[in-house]
Predict the 3D structure of the following.
Amino acid sequence: MIVEERIYVLQTGASQKEYLSIYEKEGLPAQLEILQGFLGYFSTEFGVQNQLVHLWAYRDLEDRRERRARLAEDTRWQGCLAKIRPMIMTMENRIMYPASFSPLPLNVFPALAN
């Protein structure tokens, strides 16, 4: 299993509340269906301001590539992106491999067990 960490910093004038509302109603349903493996979505209180971090689990890099390609073609996701992309100033992502003792067992993500 791999975990993708995606970090977005919103524009200074962007409303985090509005961004999260649009994302929750329009983007997240498509992502949950296509990407699966949702671990969480977080906002920062200290450090970088207007920062959002979300985590996604995948079987491997090929699973991630296939799922992200399907998501990019989804009209629901495209509609959400049209609204939230202008709010984002920077985007960063990294792939992480859990240590053998990490409390993220594969059975927590049944969709990844296939």
